[in-house]
Write a structure and sequence with these properties.
Shape: globular
Distance between the termini: 34 Å
Oligomer: single chain
Number of helices: 14
Helix content: 40-55%
Number of strands: 9
Length: 416
């Protein structure tokens, strides 16, 4: 592994940091999250048209830039620094790879260029609170029990004249209230032979009701969707099992999430160091006290270690994607073949480490900012909520590590 960034990667980071530094300052951030959509459409248009961010990891055939999960993770690190509320994660990290891996030629040709241009935003709807399970971050269920059991819950799909219809409800869908395309995991086949398939639903489909939810982390907006006999289109071929593809997606998604968390942790730590260097107590800067130095040094080491883990996870996800494509995309979608255990656990472990680093850095920021640190006017609490909100959605940390240990057979007894 070459740990050095290429000139192109450095340029992506530099350009994105400069743009977000001007367009996503604390006042713009608060204004964006208070809108019905939860993000600034003008900023998203700029990110799409000037930087090609939505199509960063999509092939050039479909209007993308042709980069890998590594470049996408580096972009997520920069959006994480400012907690930029954009549809990037829901659209480019969660949904676009599924469309690319499972969609028919017509579906890919019709949807991916629009996603790459920024004109189409998308969201992945997984029933219940099981997004981490669906992505195989906290467990690997080969039968899709995370989607609800038959008629007992989740979303049901049945054949209708000219296609499919969906009925059910999903409560936590990232950007589900505003995305123009929904990718919904639903049961089909009846109670006895139930299986999970993925369906495309237009944002303006008949029978679809969407409401923005009040979330702990307002910078990562969520929506509740209700489907009442909503017309839907099956993604790809009915004979292909989407669950292994969802599980493989978890590695890249976790790497991007970890990079996001590292970017946020680095930023809040920078702000805290700057503040304690200016704030005086007993006639000297607060940052000159040995106890404060020790606390910030410990947080810095934790953030740097998490950054290294996130970069490795992104590299591993890109290497796995390259190896998978070299074998046969259709064969791996059917069999669920995966990379070696060392690489497949990198994303979950990096995410666990990054979430802990962000929580630590944000907590120190709130404490060391003193009387202003815990107020609504200061943005330190937004970083702490990002850490807590991501752990609720994709964790908790101890389960991320436990699943990684199980996947790597860490605690299995050695044979004779």
């Amino acid at each position: 592994m070459d740990a050095r960034f290429t000139d192109e990667q450095d340029e992506i980071r530099r350009t994105l940091r400069e743009l977000l530094g001007k367009r996503c300052r604390p006042e713009e951030l608060r204004a964006a999250v208070d809108t019905p959509a939860g993000h600034d459409p003008a900023l998203w248009t700029t990110l799409a048209e000037q930087l090609g961010l939505p199509g960063l990891a999509l092939p050039e055939t479909y209007g993308g830039v042709g980069c890998t999960a590594t470049e996408l993770a580096l972009a997520c690190e920069e959006t994480g620094r400012t907690l930029a509320p954009t549809p990037l994660f829901a659209t480019a990290v969660l949904t676009a790879p599924l469309l690319l891996a499972l969609g028919t030629d017509a579906q890919r040709a019709g949807l991916l260029p629009r996603i790459a241009s920024g004109a189409l935003t998308a969201a992945l709807a997984v029933p219940g609170t099981a997004l981490a399970s669906a992505l195989a971050l906290t467990g690997h269920d080969r039968h899709g029990a995370w989607a609800g059991g038959g008629r007992a819950g989740g979303v049901q799909a049945r054949r209708a004249e000219g296609g499919w219809q969906l009925y059910g409800q999903v409560d936590q869908v990232l950007d589900g209230h505003s995305a123009r395309l929904l990718l919904v995991a639903a049961h089909t086949g009846g109670f006895a032979r139930s299986r999970v398939l993925l369906f495309l639903v237009r944002g303006d489909a008949t029978g679809l009701t969407r409401v923005r939810q009040t979330a702990l982390d307002a910078t990562r907006p969520q929506g509740r969707i209700q489907l009442r006999h909503v017309p839907a289109e099956l993604l790809g071929d009915e004979t292909v099992d989407p669950l292994p593809v969802l599980a493989r997606l978890g590695d890249a998604a976790a790497a991007c999430l970890a990079a996001e968390a590292v970017g946020a942790a680095g930023r809040v730590l920078e702000r805290t160091v700057e503040y304690v260097g200016q704030r005086e107590q007993f006639g000297r800067p607060v940052g000159s006290f040995q106890a404060v130095k020790h606390r910030l040094a410990d947080a810095y080491v934790q953030v740097q270690a998490a950054r290294s883990a996130a970069y490795y996870a992104a590299w591993a996800a890109a290497a796995e994607a390259t190896a998978t494509a070299a074998v046969s995309p259709s064969a791996t979608a059917t069999t669920g073949a995966r990379a070696p255990a060392r690489e497949e656990t990198a994303g979950g472990l990096a995410l666990a480490q990054a979430l802990e680093a962000l929580r630590r850095a944000a907590a120190e920021g709130i404490q060391l900012h003193g009387g202003i640190g815990f107020t609504w006017e200061h943005e330190a609490h937004l970083y702490f909520k990002r850490a807590a909100g991501d752990e609720l959605l994709f964790g908790p940390v101890h389960r991320l590590r436990a699943h990684a240990a199980d996947a790597a057979h860490v605690f299995e007894e050695a044979g004779p």
